[in-house]
Specification:
Blueprint (H helix, E strand, L loop, with lengths): L1 E3 L14 E5 L5 H5 L8 H4 L5 E5 L5 H9 L5 E5 L8 H7 L5 E5 L21 E6 L21 E6 L4 H7 L12 E3 L6 H10 L9 E9 L1 H7 L8 E10 L1 H10 L5 E8 H6 L10 E8 L7 H8 L7 E3 L13 E2 L19 E3 L14 H10 L5 E3 L6 H13 L3 E2 L1
Parallel strand pairs: 1-2, 2-3, 3-4, 4-5, 5-6, 6-7, 7-8, 8-9, 9-10, 10-11, 11-12, 12-13, 13-15, 15-16, 16-17
Antiparallel strand pairs: 12-14
């Protein structure tokens, strides 16, 4: 990686360079104010370049021609730059041979960024469009779905007033992306919209391997649509700003044989008890808050029994705090010997364990010295324990000292 800090607008000659980061903002105001005069002699100076990251630039015809004519360029990251209406056609032409494109925080001036109707990006495999902090990004950016038939990974984060109608009406419902296996979503869709999106992705030629949900409502309809992808799902992320249902999270654990990473807000002991054995035996990272209502305390050993089948786990984390004033959600699963934690002695690959660290006292652990001594003695590869170990600050401090005496970090 090379970053351009040269004075003026000349590029240094690095014939073997493959990755280049150019940020005009960090050079000086004179260069930034005269961006149209830059000599974009990329092919001459960097003939082997395959990844280019450019920030704070004016996307003008000179730059676009340099991108289009470069013989080796495969991916482009464009950040915090300007795109005028009369330059959009040459920009899309410059992207014709790219395999990866990421655009983030772009000033589109007239809010128009339509793609020529006859444009086809046959080589495009990865596409990321991120403009969450711009109030009115061009709606046409989502039209890229029509033009990238071999897309494998798509991530978008756009604040669009009527985004849901646009998403549903796009050919995402018509198996337009048969090769797509990774989808990272916008912030807002509700359950029915998610269901529509997921239903339209993949067919007999391809299914989702990675699904990241930052926000919105990921409920029963979306999970039913996800059934088609259970056999291929490897990575599922349902973020802290997303609403989900406990039984649906349970169904994923019971139905996805290839799942390796899962992050979700919470799951109830009662839903775990009502489900069958967990099929995700290859799970390596599990981040989720296990909740136990007052009437479900007798189910704790069963939860630990289910967890004991995940012998490849390296990270077991009680997840991000659910900061709500609703005290009926229940308390955290307690990792104490008298609750059945000894069933997890078989998790010999564990390196990181995390507990709830929010302000709700009832969701904090109430561990004792015997409990943490057991963890240190049985999880031989354990390197870190994060979060609160006991709701009493003094006891919590003492337990941390015990773990540190065994070479285990605490945060």
């Amino acid at each position: 990686m090379h970053t351009m800090y040269e004075q003026h607008t000349e590029f240094m000659h690095h014939p073997n360079l493959r990755r280049l980061d150019i940020d005009l903002f960090v050079i000086d105001s004179d260069v930034y104010d005269n961006r149209e005069t830059i000599r974009w002699d990329l092919t001459e100076k960097y003939p082997l370049l395959d990844h280019l990251s450019i920030s704070n630039v004016d996307v003008n015809p000179t730059l676009c021609r340099a991108l289009s004519e470069h013989p080796s360029l495969k991916s482009l990251y464009l950040y915090n730059s300007e795109m005028k209406r009369n330059n959009r056609t040459v920009f899309w032409e410059a992207c014709r041979n790219l395999e990866g494109l990421e655009m983030r925080s772009i000033d589109y001036k007239d809010r128009s960024m339509s793609v020529p109707k006859d444009a086809v990006f046959n080589r495009m495999r990865t596409l990321k469009i991120k403009d969450a902090y711009r109030r009115f990004p061009p709606l046409e950016l989502l039209d890229l779905v029509f033009h990238c038939p071999r897309l494998e990974s798509f991530e978008w984060d756009l604040v669009i007033p009527f985004k849901i109608r646009i998403m549903i009406n796009h050919p995402i419902q018509k198996d337009h992306w048969p090769l797509l296996n990774e989808l990272r979503n916008p912030r807002e869709p509700q359950d029915t919209e998610f269901a529509s999106i997921i239903t339209g992705i993949g067919n007999s030629l391809g299914r989702i391997a990675e699904l990241h949900i930052a926000g919105g409502t990921f409920g029963p309809q979306a999970f039913r649509a996800l059934d088609f992808h259970f056999d291929t799902l490897v990575d599922l992320y349902v973020g802290e700003f997303a609403s989900s249902i406990s039984s649906a999270i349970r169904d994923v654990l019971c139905s996805c044989p290839n799942l390796e990473n899962m992050q979700a807000p919470s799951i109830y002991a009662k839903d775990i008890a009502e489900g069958g054995p967990w099929l995700c035996r290859g799970l390596r990272k599990l981040v989720i808050l296990f909740l136990v209502r007052e009437t479900e305390q007798d189910l704790c050993p069963l939860v630990f029994e289910r967890l004991s089948t995940l012998t490849r786990l390296t990270t077991l984390d009680m997840g991000y705090p659910i900061e709500t004033d609703n005290d009926t959600l229940g308390s955290s699963l307690q990792f104490r010997l008298d609750c059945g934690v000894e069933q997890l002695a078989c998790l010999q690959e564990l390196r990181t364990v995390g507990f709830y660290s929010g302000y709700h006292v009832e969701r904090k652990q109430q561990l004792g010295t015997k409990d943490v001594e057991w963890m240190a003695g049985n999880w031989r590869k354990l390197k870190a324990v994060n979060g609160n170990l006991n709701k009493n600050p003094e006891v919590d401090r003492q337990l941390r000292c015990v773990l540190r005496s065994h070479g285990i970090d605490t945060w």
